[in-house]
Design goal:
It is a single chain. The chain is of the alpha+beta class. The protein has three domains: 205 residues, Spore Coat Polysaccharide Biosynthesis Protein SpsA, Chain A, CATH 3.90.550.10; 59 residues; 102 residues, Sandwich (Jelly Rolls), CATH 2.60.120. The chain is 31% helix and 28% strand. It contains eleven helices and 17 strands. The radius of gyration is 23 Å and the shape is globular. It starts with 9 loop residues before the first strand and ends in an 11-residue tail after the last strand. The C terminus is likely disordered.
């Protein structure tokens, strides 16, 4: 039998206020985990419903603290300060973990000792706790997309290394809707992140949920957040979340007013909006799901000293791409101009370990056709750090 004390301690914090109707299911999803070295803290904001009575049923298995706080973000920070775990997570009082989630997360962090956090796949559930669909946005880690375009990470599936959080500081308490996106950006620009392709948790969607009811206030906060991280007055992500916000508002208006055309077409409208926003995200970055890169591609890597290697391919059958040349910029600085053909690797030296490496790749040629009007430049392979000693194995093209 494994000694629980030999395993990293995991602390889960649940912020809660008058969520007694969901709280039991959340508690059960945490305490039924198969991970033995677990600490569970519920930070209650002074609930007047049956939350305290429900928590009392689990006396000795969790810590329940009920006192006024300054909101959800403040409650999470207070819980993290009380936590004794090496690995931290927060699970909102209307969301749930799936069986085995914590063991899988600890395994991924153990296998990736440099990672600041891991995240996984998740489901959306309704008010009754029934799964409605997969959380549609999760993808492998892409720092540029996270910083500039969208929060594709389901926070409920995130597990953070305490040492990484200690270095970047607590959640930003002035943020009500985007504190999870903000902490993920701050961690992602300093530490590697790991996407675990396994289902770990569920996000509950219902009209009264904070994300669903945030409306224009949420969109404005996310816009300010993105300005702070990108130093751009109109970051592309502001457009993405603006469209998302107002498309949801239109659907709610149609449902409440019984609009004869839109009523009953809510699911179709939602699917169309998600597809349009997804296409917008891909166009802004210049990277498509089938692996093709457009004529301008944006990429970003966590702050580190070393050699960044861009790999890809220019198919020999693509006559329109003959003579392809890639110009790579970091900000306004040209890092190099590289002729590419067939399979290629380009090594980029990065000399400042305190800032992320952000590059813009501009292609001289593109291919398109009536059947596929996209302006395609090359097949993207990867963009990743290589150890300094492997410079010779990846020469500049």
């Amino acid at each position: 039998m494994v000694d629980p004390n030999s395993l990293p301690r995991v602390t889960v914090v649940t912020p809660s206020l008058n969520q007694g109707h969901f709280l039991r299911q959340t508690i059960e999803s945490v305490l039924s985990q198969d991970y033995p070295n677990l600490e569970y803290i519920i930070m209650d904001g002074g609930s007047t419903d049956d939350s305290a009575a429900i928590a009392a049923e689990y006396s000795g298995r969790l810590v329940f603290l009920s006192e006024p706080d300054k909101g959800q973000t403040n409650a999470i920070n207070k819980g993290f300060r009380l936590a004794t775990g090496e690995i931290l997570a927060w699970l909102n009082s209307d969301d749930i973990y799936l069986p085995g989630a914590i063991s899988k997360a600890v395994g991924a962090l153990t296998a990736n000792p440099n990672a600041g956090f891991i995240y996984g796949e998740g489901y959306l559930i309704d008010a009754a706790g029934e799964i409605t669909r997969r959380f549609p946005h999760t993808q492998p880690f892409d720092l540029w997309r996270l910083v500039h375009l969208s929060d594709y990470i389901l926070q409920q599936t995130c597990f953070f290394r305490r040492s990484a959080l200690n270095q970047i500081g607590p959640l930003t308490e002035s943020l009500r809707y985007g504190m999870d996106w903000d902490i993920l950006i701050r961690l992602g620009t300093r530490f590697p992140a790991v996407h675990l392709p396994q289902y770990l948790a569920c996000l509950r969607e219902y009209p009264a949920a904070k994300t669903s009811s945030g409306g224009a206030q949420r969109a404005r906060e996310l816009h300010r957040l993105l300005i702070g991280h990108t130093r751009r007055l109109l970051p592309p992500g502001a457009l993405v979340y603006g469209l998302d916000t107002y498309s949801q508002a239109a659907q709610r208006w149609a449902a409440s007013h019984g609009h004869p055309w839109l009523t009953g077409r809510g699911d179709a409208l939602r699917a169309w909006c998600e597809q349009y926003i997804g296409n917008l995200v891909m166009h802004k970055q210049g990277l498509y799901p089938d692996g093709w890169a457009g004529t301008t591609l944006h990429l970003m890597l966590t702050a580190q000293l070393g050699v960044a290697v861009l790999s890809g391919a220019v198919p020999v059958w693509a006559d329109q791409l003959a003579g392809q040349r890639l110009r790579v910029y970091s900000g306004r600085r040209l890092l190099g101009s590289y002729p590419v053909t067939g399979n290629f690797r380009i090594a980029l030296q990065h000399h400042d370990p305190t800032v992320p490496l952000s590059v813009r790749i501009e292609a001289s040629h593109h291919a398109s056709s009536p059947r596929d009007p996209r302006r395609l430049a090359f097949l993207f392979g990867s963009f990743a750090w290589q150890p300094q000693e492997e410079d010779e194995a990846y020469p500049v093209v």
